[in-house]
Amino acid sequence: MAQIFPRWANKAPAYAAGAGALAAIVVPLFIWYYFSPKYTDVGYKPRQPVPYSHKLHVGELGLDCRYCHAGVEVAAVASVPPTKVCMNCHKLVKRDSELLAPIRASFESGTPMRWVRIHKLPQYAYFDHSIHVRVGVGCSSCHGDIAQMEEVQQAKPLSMSWCLDCHRNPDPYLRRSDQIFVTDWQPPEDQQAFAAEVREEMKIAPPEDCTACHR
Ligand code: HEC
Ligand code: HEC
Ligand code: HEC
Ligand code: HEC
Ligand code: HEC
User: Fold this and answer.
1) Which pLDDT belongs to residue 27?
2) Which tens digits make up the pLDDT trace of 52-111?
3) What whole-number distance in Å separates Cα of residue 6 and Cα of residue 3?
4) How far apart are CA 17 and CA 187, in angstroms?
5) How far apart are CA 133 and CA 196, in angstroms?
6) Which of 94, 87, 49 has the alpha carbon at shortest distance from 68?
7) Quick check: CB of 101 below 6 Å from ligand 2?
8) Residue 33: pLDDT over 50
9) What is the per-residue pLDDT for 1?
10) By the 8 A CB rule, do 66 and 164 touch?
11) Do residues 44 and 119 touch, judged by C-beta distance below 8 A?
């Protein structure tokens, strides 16, 4: 019984003013499926086919996110790397490792690796990485400190109220452009002044209207 109304329903009156109609239409029961913990739970950490470690490759080897998530600055999706990116190194490094057998098999057969997707919004919500990255919202604000993760786990709820909390006040999260990929970023002392300036300069105005995210 506790789950009849989503948590979001608590805030319903506030939203209803603007958009009761849309809300009533877009919440048919089939959406229920998406409330499963798989989509909402912080800490979701599925077992991957190969124990790929960001802690090793990013934290220790120092690889840049874009080496593998090439779309993140230019496209809606960050995308997960094709096998050949791994083979750039693993043709030579640890070439006989048992752990890498599925990677070698994927490379030889041309069948993509089936990484288990971790962060996933429901179909009816629209998200675009490039827009966020362009204005200076960095990876760790939404994904946590990836460089410390042996296995990736969901760090933030990805709920609507989470999106809106930042959209209403993005100032604590706006970074200088050379800081986007820093995985343990903390706001510097002049954050407030910097954010106010950059917000004005780039005309940053995150949307709160329903159609921005529900198209
Ligand atoms: C050498 C390649 C490589 C590099 C470099 C890399 N990643 Fe990844 N990343 C992967 C692979 C492979 C997966 C899928 C397997 C997994 O989830 O661990 C992944 C998964 C992810 C996911 C979860 C995707 C999902 O399914 O929701 C996030 C978030 C992520 N990476 C962020 C980052 C960030 C941030 C950086 C830079 C700080 C980074 N990655 C650097 C290869 C890489
Ligand atoms: C820039 C080079 C580079 C790239 C690209 C790279 N790796 Fe690695 N990988 C390494 C190095 C170096 C090690 C550590 C070797 C050691 O421990 O001596 C390693 C170790 C590993 C190990 C542990 C192997 C073992 O037997 O201990 C796995 C698994 C792995 N990588 C998976 C991947 C996957 C999957 C990708 C592609 C998404 C990838 N790597 C891309 C350099 C790379
Ligand atoms: C404003 C929040 C936010 C920022 C900043 C952000 N991400 Fe994401 N990321 C998400 C959300 C939300 C999803 C799920 C998207 C979906 O399901 O449509 C996601 C999904 C992903 C995925 C899974 C594949 C995909 O594209 O859906 C990867 C990989 C990823 N992010 C990497 C990164 C990297 C690397 C950065 C930094 C350059 C980054 N993200 C910055 C929120 C963010
Ligand atoms: C940490 C801060 C932050 C979080 C979290 C965040 N956003 Fe944003 N988002 C922004 C900022 C800043 C902009 C403004 C970009 C601009 O004005 O150019 C923006 C812009 C957008 C836009 C507007 C794109 C356009 O066409 O102008 C969409 C859509 C969007 N975000 C969706 C989402 C969704 C969906 C989520 C949650 C899954 C989310 N955002 C989470 C900071 C954030
Ligand atoms: C910044 C992006 C954003 C804006 C603006 C936004 N939503 Fe959402 N909305 C989302 C995301 C993301 C989800 C999925 C949440 C989840 O999976 O937990 C969602 C989910 C929903 C749901 C499903 C129930 C729920 O709470 O998960 C309804 C209904 C909804 N939104 C209605 C609205 C209405 C009405 C408005 C306008 C007042 C609005 N949304 C504005 C991002 C947004």
Assistant:
1) 56
2) 999 999 999 999 999 999 999 999 999 999 999 999 999 999 999 999 999 999 999 999
3) 6
4) 35
5) 18
6) 87
7) no
8) no
9) 44
10) no
11) no
Residue 139 · residue 73 · CB < 8 Å: no
Output the residue whose Cα is nearest ligand 2's atom 5.
86
Ligand found nearest the CA of 51: 2
Q: Residues lining ligand 5, judged by CB closer than 6 Å?
A: 6, 8, 15, 18-19, 22-23, 26-27, 34, 39-40, 121-122, 125, 159-160, 163-164, 167, 207-208, 210, 212-214
Q: Report CA(212)–ligand 4 centroid distance (Å).
A: 9
Token pair listed for 122: 């429901």
Q: Is 204 in the pocket of ligand 4 (CB under 6 A)?
A: yes
Q: In angstroms, rounded to a whole number, what is the distance separating the alpha carbons of residues 107 and 93?
A: 15
∠ Cα 208 40 133 (to 5°)? 50
> Residue 45: pLDDT band by 50, 70, 90 thresholds?
confident
Determine the Cα–Cα distance for residues 183 and 170; give it in Å rounded to an integer. Answer: 18
Tokens of 201: 């300069």
Residues in the chain: 215
